């Protein structure tokens, strides 16, 4: 059969209309409706845990939906934005935290979850401080996939051998750091060669533990400029520590793994790192751990008298506006709240999927079988439940401000910008983004 | 004739012209990549010109261009001329110097980062252990751009040498032998016979170098991500940062327009040279 040029031209509008017509959900061979989910980065342990504990377990738990998970790697955030705008994304939209979600939620690319939340009682089952990070204009657009915090990881063997005590304030911190330097030990194992975000891990600590979480919250609400003296003190302390060599000589050359291993191997005494460190075997942590220990980071100024945890949500989960199977996506979310999933995922990939459930009975954590991780999660759950936390930059700072916070601090540390100039630029960028509604929702805190 | 040109025209229109026009248009809006764009006039350009990082990135692009117009070109010319006048082992040498070109950029980046420059696992660590106080150039904002340029030169110069050698082999053997009989040494031969003989190829490669230098991205992004302290930031990495880390497509498009402007200038120079060359030969 020959097709004329006119027939081809006539078919184009029809094909265009057909492509634009709403489509039903994809259906698997066994008749189940497919739920698609794009995941970001996952190491080999993580990929195995996702396959076994999430995909296979969910698909075996019911016969209506079939979960299909794709590991998209580090570029998932960019891919997702393009796919959502094109109306062609996955059913489950996972972002790298509230700071990424804000633009997507404001653009209406994800569905409000309030009806599902009422059906599955999510509001009663998630910690409010974390759940509130997904609320925009009074509607719930995302569930928190995990909670994280910066912690002080330290080599307890090294501390014991040298008679060092766990520091409880800035003076003690500097005493231990100076003693370590005098012995040729790096005070803090740190390196950003593979991930510049390490800069913001450190700045989260300095902003909160020096300036204080109340001042940080005020600044994030637009009530206090970032150029205020407490923030100048925070940036100046970060510079002083960098210049004293507290982060070692090779901060810009070491990868996260190399720098963390320095602590485990006793070449460095401590690391300021996040709870995700538990989930990477190559970092050298073990269960039970005879070398390493973990503690909340002490206050570094008179404004912060007690150790502080930092509220972070490493990923959010939403349902795409164009999803053909929102019920299936909601069923996956509800499956995540089962005790079995919580225990399996936290046992196999600790720290990556620490779902911020409201009730965390001791037996829920027992199944994880990792005492140090259980203790850390329990402390975090307690602090976050009571509203006692600081604010992490990657969760609550808007995009452009956060990008400059990460890049610009290197200029301060390397004497190419003053703390005042750095904070002045942060203040300018933040004011603009606050005006544009790009700052993620802030949960309340108690002292 | 139009039917023959149609596939090329369609590809150019849909893959190049339309995205280019959309990028140009995006430079005049505020857009986060998912919401609705809002007209911003020249605000993105105003903010770009007020940003000191833009100026340092532009300076780095010029530095990069200058490096690539000289160092690899001189190395490649000398190697090509040497292979022309001393053909023994030419095939083996060509294979060796061309090899880096076929390696993936990401692989080369990681090799230099981890096995050469790293003060823990690289040759620098080995030298440090033997008393040579050498620091990682990638960790120094004053040297990081030059260190990455060194990596890219290692990847690039062999290809240039092979191109130049191919062009030199088009020069009449009689002309070369006559020059040598007249007593021309290596550099005299180069100056008066080889360089004039490959002038069209040389000018094309120089102009392409200018265009590519304003588009440079992969090596810098993989090896230093533009750091530390913006020390190796160039326009392409800055545009990428605006678009994908800050969600500011308008700013990214404005930076991209500046990149394109330099590419267009270089293309205009090339077309002008072509026209002049055509007029001379006719």
Structure description:
The complex is a heterodimer of chains A (447) and B (282). Chain A is α/β, with parallel strands linked by helices and 447 residues long. Helix content of chain A is 48%, strand content 12%. In chain A, the strands form 5 sheets. Chain A has a 4-stranded mixed beta sheet. In chain A, helix 2 (44-61) runs antiparallel to helix 15 (339-348). The radius of gyration of chain A is 24 Å and the shape is globular. The model of chain A is unreliable at 17-22 (pLDDT under 50). By secondary structure, chain B is an all-alpha fold. Chain B is built from 13 helices and 2 strands; from the N terminus they run H-E-E-H-H-H-H-H-H-H-H-H-H-H-H. The radius of gyration of chain B is 23 Å and the shape is globular. The model of chain B has no long low-confidence stretch (mean pLDDT 93). At the A-B interface, helix 3, helix 4 and helix 19 of A face helix 12 of B.
Please tell me the CATH architecture of chain B by its name. Answer: Orthogonal Bundle
Strand content of chain B: under 5%
Number of distinct helices of chain A: 20
Helix content percent band of chain A: 40-55%
Oligomerization state: heterodimer
Give the % helix of chain B: over 70%
Question: Helix- and strand-based class of chain B?
Answer: mainly alpha
Largest interface: A-B, 31 and 30 residues
How are helices and strands ordered from N to C of chain B? HEEHHHHHHHHHHHH
Poorly predicted parts of chain A: 17-22
| Beginning-to-end CA distance, first to last residue of chain B | 25 Å
Major beta sheet of chain B, specifics? 2 strands, antiparallel
Query: What is the 3D shape of chain A?
Result: globular
Whole-angstrom Rg of chain A: 24 Å
The separation of the N and C termini of chain A measures: 79 Å
């Amino acid at each position: 059969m020959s097709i004329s040029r006119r027939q081809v031209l006539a078919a184009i509008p029809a094909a265009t209309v057909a492509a634009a017509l709403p489509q039903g959900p994809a259906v698997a061979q066994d008749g189940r409706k497919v739920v698609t989910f794009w995941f970001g980065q996952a190491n080999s342990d993580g990929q195995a845990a996702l396959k076994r504990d999430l995909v296979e377990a969910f698909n075996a738990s019911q016969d209506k939906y079939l979960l299909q998970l794709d590991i998209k790697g580090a570029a998932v955030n960019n891919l997702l934005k393009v796919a959502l705008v094109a109306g062609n994304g996955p059913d489950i939209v996972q972002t790298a935290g509230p700071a990424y979600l804000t633009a997507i939620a404001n653009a209406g690319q994800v569905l409000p979850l309030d009806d599902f939340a009422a059906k599955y009682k999510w509001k009663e089952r998630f910690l409010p401080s974390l759940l509130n990070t997904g609320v925009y204009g009074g509607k719930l657009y995302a569930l928190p996939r995990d909670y994280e915090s910066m912690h002080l990881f330290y080599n307890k063997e090294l501390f014991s051998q040298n008679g060092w005590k766990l520091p409880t304030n800035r003076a003690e911190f500097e005493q231990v750091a100076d003693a370590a330097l005098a012995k040729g030990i790096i005070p803090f194992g740190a390196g950003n060669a593979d991930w510049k975000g390490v800069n913001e891990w450190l700045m989260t600590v300095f902003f909160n533990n020096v300036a204080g979480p109340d001042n940080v919250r005020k600044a994030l609400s637009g009530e206090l400029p970032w150029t205020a003296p407490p923030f100048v003190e925070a940036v100046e302390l970060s510079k002083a520590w960098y210049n004293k060599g507290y982060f070692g000589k090779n901060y810009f050359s070491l990868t996260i793994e190399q720098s963390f291993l320095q602590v485990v191997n006793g070449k460095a005494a401590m690391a300021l790192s996040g709870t995700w460190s538990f989930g990477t075997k190559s970092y050298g942590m073990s269960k039970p751990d005879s070398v390493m220990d973990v503690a909340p980071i002490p206050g570094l100024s008179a404004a912060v008298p007690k150790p502080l945890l930092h509220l972070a949500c490493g990923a959010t989960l939403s349902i795409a506006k164009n999803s053909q199977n929102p019920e299936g996506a909601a069923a996956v979310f509800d499956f995540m709240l089962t005790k079995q999933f919580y225990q399996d995922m936290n046992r196999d990939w600790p720290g990556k999927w620490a779902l911020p459930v409201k009730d965390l009975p001791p037996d829920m954590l027992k199944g994880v079988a990792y005492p140090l991780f259980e203790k850390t999660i329990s402390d975090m759950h307690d602090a976050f439940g009571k509203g006692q936390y600081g604010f992490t930059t990657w969760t609550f700072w808007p995009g452009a401000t956060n990008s400059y916070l990460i890049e610009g601090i290197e200029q301060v540390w390397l004497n190419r910008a003053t703390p005042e100039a750095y904070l002045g630029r942060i203040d300018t960028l933040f004011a603009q983004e606050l005006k544009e509604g790009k700052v993620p929702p802030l949960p309340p805190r108690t002292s | 004739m139009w039917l023959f040109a149609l596939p090329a025209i369609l590809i150019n229109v849909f893959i190049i012209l339309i995205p280019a026009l959309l990028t140009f248009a995006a430079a005049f809006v505020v857009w986060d990549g998912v919401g609705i764009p809002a007209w911003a006039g020249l605000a993105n350009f105003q903010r770009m010109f007020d940003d000191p990082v833009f100026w340092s990135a532009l300076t780095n692009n010029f530095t990069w261009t200058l490096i690539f117009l000289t160092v690899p070109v001189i190395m490649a010319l000398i190697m090509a001329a040497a292979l022309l006048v001393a053909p023994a082992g030419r095939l083996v040498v060509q294979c060796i110097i061309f090899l880096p070109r076929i390696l993936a950029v990401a692989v080369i980046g990681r090799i230099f980062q981890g096995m050469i420059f790293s003060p823990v696992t690289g040759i620098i660590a080995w030298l440090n252990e033997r008393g040579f106080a050498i620091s990682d150039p990638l960790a120094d904002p004053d040297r990081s751009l030059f260190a990455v340029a060194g990596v890219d030169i290692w990847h690039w110069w062999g290809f240039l040498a092979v191109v130049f050698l191919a062009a030199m082999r088009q020069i009449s053997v009689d002309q070369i032998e006559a020059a040598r009989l007249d007593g021309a040494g290596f550099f005299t031969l180069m100056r008066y016979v080889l360089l004039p003989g490959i002038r069209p190829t040389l000018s094309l490669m120089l102009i392409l170098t200018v265009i590519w230098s304003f588009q440079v991205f992969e090596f810098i992004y993989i090896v230093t991500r533009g750091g530390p302290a913006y020390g190796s930031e160039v326009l392409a990495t800055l545009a990428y940062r605006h678009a994908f880390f800050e969600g500011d497509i308008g700013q990214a498009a404005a930076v991209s327009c500046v990149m394109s402007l330099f590419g267009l200038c270089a293309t205009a120079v090339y077309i002008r040279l072509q026209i002049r060359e055509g007029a001379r030969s006719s």
